[in-house]
Amino acid sequence: MRAFICPGQGSQSVGMGSALAGASRIARELFEEVDEALGQSLARLMAEGSIEELTLTENAQPAIMANALAVFRTSGIPIGKAAFVAGHSLGEYSALAAAGSLDASTTARLLKLRGRAMQAAVPVGEGAMAALLGADRAMAQAVADAAAQGEVCTVANDNDPGQVVISGHRAAVERALEIAKEKGAKRAVLLPVSAPFHSPLMEPAARAMEQALADTEIARPAVPLYANFTASHVSDPAEIRGLLVEQVTGMVRWRESVAAMAAAGVDHFVEFGGKVLGPMVKRTVPDARVTSVVSMDDIGALVKEI
User: Fold this and answer.
1) Residue 294: phi, psi to the nearest 5?
2) b/e code 1-23 from CB counts within 10 Å (16+ = b)
3) Reduced to 3 states, what is the DSSP secondary structure of residue 288?
4) pLDDT tens across 57-101, in order?
5) What does the DSSP 8-state code read for residue 252?
6) What CATH number does the domain located at 127-193 have?
């Protein structure tokens, strides 16, 4: 049994999608559709940079989605070859687009808005995120609680058994770096992000997405989505709409989602458009088979296998 999964922010790089667009008419058309929807040449930015502009949240989010969806569409593999779809943070939108819940243009516009709203929610410099390596969720929660001291510091991403990300006010997150080492984390490092994602500080962005999603038609996905916020599967469009709002401020329960998919019978995870989630999957479910699909060669190998 398979799950198709899509990466989140941090997987962007200059050149992403350019070789695919050169080899695939389907990919080119997808990138053109996204460009038209956004009124900008996102495909050129993806292909030529600069990395600073591509990394801006409002650009990175639709770019990562477009790349993942282009890889999936180019493969020609029916969505029915998967039992479930899932995505890490913004990857949830990519997964829903692959499953037919959202069209590409709508998804791109939502992610552009999501990126802008998340960046605007907290002034630059006031928030931060940090990765705690060699820490599980319980340790990370204890670190966050000790570091808060009246400010926001919370677990943002439970990625795998040894990688948890915390988020909140910069001073609190910086305090957490030392506390994490005292509590036995192998490493604690600030992440190069411009806002404290998946924390209560993102509440203004959640409200912006609630308004945008209220006016968005969401179809029932062809296969169920494992949602970040609940780590359980969902197919009802109204419930999906609510969960997309909740995940802006809520924890990305990726480790639990992967474990739940494995418990449901998934033994093969196929990551479209990146090579970020595969290692997390393997650390969570060591016996799982993981295939990362980025290039035309990767697509060819997957098509032969499936």
Assistant:
1) -130, -45
2) ebbbbbbbbbbbbeebbbebbee
3) coil
4) 899 999 999 999 999 999 999 999 999 999 999 999 999 999 999
5) B
6) 3.30.70.250
Measured CA to CA, the distance from residue 234 to residue 216 in angstroms comes to: 18
**Separation of alpha carbons 104 and 36, rounded Å:** 11
Contact indicator for 260, 284 with CB cutoff of 8 Å:
no
Q: How many CB atoms lie within 10 A of CB 282?
A: 16
Catalytic residue IDs: 89, 198
Cα 72 to chain centroid, rounded: 16
Tokens for 290, please give them. Answer: 């993981």
Provide the H-helix boundaries in the chain.
18-23, 25-38, 42-48, 51-55, 57-75, 91-98, 104-121, 137-148, 170-182, 203-214, 237-249, 254-263, 277-284, 296-305
Encoding tokens for residue 175?
Answer: 């305090």
As a whole number of angstroms, the distance between CA 9 and CA 91 comes to: 8
The strand pair at 268-272 and 2-6 is best described as parallel
Q: What is the pLDDT of residues 239-294, one digit of tens each?
A: 999 999 999 999 999 999 999 999 999 999 999 999 999 999 999 999 999 999 99
**Contacts for 141 with CB less than 8 Å, ≥ 6 apart:** 155
Residue boundaries of the structural domains of the chain: 2-121+201-305, 127-193
- What is the third-level CATH fold of 2-121+201-305? Malonyl-Coenzyme A Acyl Carrier Protein; domain 2 (3.40.366)
Identify any residues that bridge with 71 across adjacent strands, giving them in sequence order.
Answer: none
pLDDT grade, residue 188 (50/70/90)? very high
